[in-house]
Amino acid sequence: MYFQRQLQRCLLRIRFHKVNVDGRRLIQTGPLQSVEENVNVYKPILPSKKYEFKINTDQKSEMVSLYEACVFTNDFVRSAQLLGRIAGYNATDENMYPYIELYLRHLISSGDFMLDSMIRTTRAILKKSKLAGNSQIYAYYFQAALLKESEESGYPVLKRIAVEWRYRKGKVIDILSQTSILSSEQIQKIIRILNIPLETLSNSQLALFGFQPSNPTEINTVKSTVEEGRSQPVTVPSTEHAYIDKIKSKGMRLSALLKSLNNISVSPENLPVDEVSLEKVPSSELVNLARQKLLEKSAIASAIDLWKAEYEDTFQRGGGALPKNKEASALFYEWYTELKEMFNQENKRLDSFYHRIETNAGNPYIAEGFCGPFLKLLKTEKLAALTIIEVIRSISSISTQEEAEETHGVLISRLTDAVGRSFEREFLSERLQEEEREGKLRIRDNLKFVFNNPRAFRAAVKELRRNADENDGKWKHALESWPRYVTTKIGAIAISLFLQAAKMDIKFKRPDTGDITKESVSAFAHTYQYIHGRKSGVLRPRVELLKLIASEFQNPLIHPQMLPMLVRPKPWVQWDKGGYYYSRESIIRLKGCTEQLDYIKEASHKGHLKKIYNALSALGDVDWRINRFTFDVIVKIWNSGEGMLSIPPKNVEVNLPPYPKQALNPNDRVSWYSLRDKLSREKATAHSQRCDFNYKLEIANSYLNEKFYFPHNMDFRGRVYPISAHLHHVNNDFCRGLLEFAEGKPLGPNGLNWLKVHLANLFGISKVDYASRQKFVDDNIAELFDSYDHPLEGRKWWASAEDPFQALAAIAEIARAIRSGNPESYVCHVPVQQDGTCNGLQHYAALGRDPDGAHEVNLSPNDRPKDVYDAVAKIVISRLEQESAKGDEVASVLKDKIDRSVVKPTVMTNVYGVTYVGAKNQIISQLEKRGDIPKDMLNNYSSYLTKMVFRALRSLFERAHEIQDWLSTCSYLISNSLPAEFVKQGHKDKLTPTIWTTPLGFPIIQPYRNFKKRQVQTNLQSVCIEDRDRVASVEPRKQAAAFPPNFVHSLDATHLFMTCLKAKEADITFASVHDSYWTHACDVEQLGNLLRQAFVELHSQKIMEKLRNEFRKRYKNFMIPKEIARRYDLFISSEDSDKKWVPLKIPLLPSQGTFDLTKVLESKYFFS
């Protein structure tokens, strides 16, 4: 390793000597198109006391969260105090408006206010904010005046407000346009009070305000539009379900899932079709949308009902008293009833506490009183249920007391945050459902632009409440995540109460009398342990509780909103608008770097992400169904209880020899304990896997004969994943074999041959030409028909495939096509996959225009596909033979034991940043499989071989490694840099992450920071949490090591998006698993052409030049320590030679090769 580092450093010194850089620092979030285009400047945020009161940042502050909680719990005195503080730190920020509107809406709804006092308080807050007030604020003034003034008084305040608004050159019609605030009756009343002539209003305005327009036809059109979706016949697709043998589980996990899945086949009269009739979906999809709404509802109520039912059942079977061996759900219901009452008492205690400090200190956010408003956001029934669910979820993977001790139980710091987050999620879910109920027949506000356009007006009525935050933004600001401090504090209160309520009866033998005695004891122990050298609080369940639930909670509950959708997902139109209809999802899965959301919001606002949105929407539009043939075979295997392939057996035999009591050698007893632990883990793992299979099978069973969809979003690098959990095509072979396209297409002239190629690939026959792959299937046609006719009773040829369940699905399709007598007309549903050849190396070869590397990864045309793993293995074998000839004993042993399988994992992951230790472990694993190398020599041999593989890779892909080195160097320099003004102020923390923009305009920020620890004092214990904010310092080494693989991942994601958009334009079904592209067999050739075109277009954009140019502009006027500049031999001017910090210089790019990128268009095996 030392030699390699010195060699790399020397190469970098030669390549990056005396770099001179100039540029500008400007604003940009879109892709770079020319050397003069601007980029988004990065300026690190420094710690500030004002941060806790700031709004519209990457993370909601604690005080803003507390303010919202006070408003939602009608604590208007405290909320006004907090809002005033927040306004002082957010002067001129128009994002204050939604927070003021939130206060006014809830205050007016309560009816408990004085009109003059409300207006005076609001104006004081606006003054602190340095804002004048908008039409929404004045609409609330109007509404409050209508409620508090009378006809007799003449509405003086309302008229004064109108005069004030006109004085500000505002139009009263702008206030009346806020129909999400003012009802039609209130608007009509205001028009009469202010003597607004009806003749000045258009027909559209009159209709909107509830008046009869002069043109009745227009109103009839509007009404028919509203009723359009309600006249459709309500039918539920018929579904036949298979019998699936359930695991021996008495818990609620599977039952709760089944209860949620029952919504798929609910009777028509129970469907909320009327509630969803105004969504922007075809009328024929209203039934499915109604079922989708039921699926997205909360699962908490059903869980409570289930506990209660089982609790009552145990009473009946016990003759009025609880039986000795209570079932887990009955025990949970006991805890639930006790915990619910404890939450009631805790709320009263916090109320009395706050009233005391309110008169004494006047501080609206003293620590203990801080939590009260948050706990009041939910009913105590839900608080109790959520607490129990999260605790049981956290211990669900612990099957024995020994395992609990090995894993130190459950960390209190994690558990408190998890419980607090569950409260937050449920609160947001309630807000969404409330807005959906209240606003479903509301026309969205601010419709001034459609008043004089009848067509636009009718379109707006038809759209109505397509998106709640588009309608009026009532709850948009309240949907940001609560800070970790908040969730930890309220979670600690919940866990503290839970520990008091969680009791269970334990039987034990009295040592003095020998009698069996029953005693009620705590089901959990709160203790402290040293974990990684740090004292940490843990929650450890009793072994009796673990035994009770060991077979019931092997996997966590999943919210029904994460199931596949029954209707096409909502198209993505904004970073947080798309996917599920009644559940809010973000387009990106953040990994601790919330600042990336700022860049994404700005890019979205500027319209730079339209192609990303269109591609994600297109991926979600692919309709799927369950492959009935594969499903039936899997169900037979499952119900038999026999283990087969990846399906674990129903019962796992544990052959543990007797304990060696008389053994003279102590190692014998140590070995016995080790074997016992190993067998115990294997049994627990098998049961856990079987529970997981049961879960997926039940989902598949419920979706039989259904057409369903998978909404998609991205990780921080742009890689795409389905949002739906468990059953989706990005999962394992078992799940992929169960899925097929719902819309089939005739095979056409070449479709059958592509099916055969696909089947050969699934058997691992992928490194030969297409004709040979087809011949492989033809030569095994008898085995193919046997597998189709007798999948479990025959010779089971399909089971020998590398991906057996996908192979079974392809076998069935080929057999049916051949037996149809006319394969070209046979309608095929099974997706055919085309995979890249070590896709990361393909991108590197294209970036460096490396002819040798391009040849090895099939960028250039070949008669048969090149095998890069075999090429590396041959180089390694050749060098081992050379070393063996020189007398190297290790090389002599290894030279005959190396093949492509040994080096494959390391070659695959090398491009994605595998470390030396990681590669060594991969090679150890492969050598162990051979079974012919002594275990005591594995470590030495694998170390020797790892170095050999790395050298072989570098010699074969030299330009790829040069680019990797350049990327790592740039990232390391950037992460050690600071803006010049920060350096002058004396700041030394490394605050600058690596940021870049993909060719489609997606901004990426690496999330690797040293997040600071923070002590939170709770009534349970002192909890140390991470403040995952933007002021934490970055990790330069992690930034540098991760940048090359992350950059390549962003490129393969961009290639996927570009291909998806081309497929959509060509009307081709397209699905993907990263670098594996799926389509119908008849469209394989067309998709192959499109993905090649997309790759050439992507790499014709001078990606590396644009990246360097972006770095130069983004980080201009940044400084780095002089010792780091010298370490990389960067040019230092004479005027900077005596300074500690010098200007950041971006190194020159490595030279490119001569590979002609257009050759990719001719390469048959680029993707194959």
UniProtKB/TrEMBL annotation:
It catalyses: RNA(n) + a ribonucleoside 5'-triphosphate = RNA(n+1) + diphosphate. GO terms for cellular component: mitochondrial DNA-directed RNA polymerase complex; mitochondrial nucleoid. Keywords: DNA-directed RNA polymerase, Mitochondrion, Nucleotidyltransferase, Transcription, Transferase, Transit peptide. PROSITE patterns: RNA_POL_PHAGE_1, RNA_POL_PHAGE_2. Its main location: mitochondrion. The keyword Transit peptide applies. This is DNA-directed RNA polymerase. It is found in: Mitochondrion. Its EC number is 2.7.7.6. GO terms for biological process: DNA replication, synthesis of primer; transcription initiation at mitochondrial promoter. Coiled coil: none annotated. It is an enzyme of class 2 (transferase). Belongs to the phage and mitochondrial RNA polymerase family. DNA-dependent RNA polymerase catalyzes the transcription of DNA into RNA using the four ribonucleoside triphosphates as substrates. One of its GO terms (molecular function) is DNA-directed RNA polymerase activity. SMART domains: RPOL_N. Residues 290-621 form the DNA-directed RNA polymerase N-terminal domain.
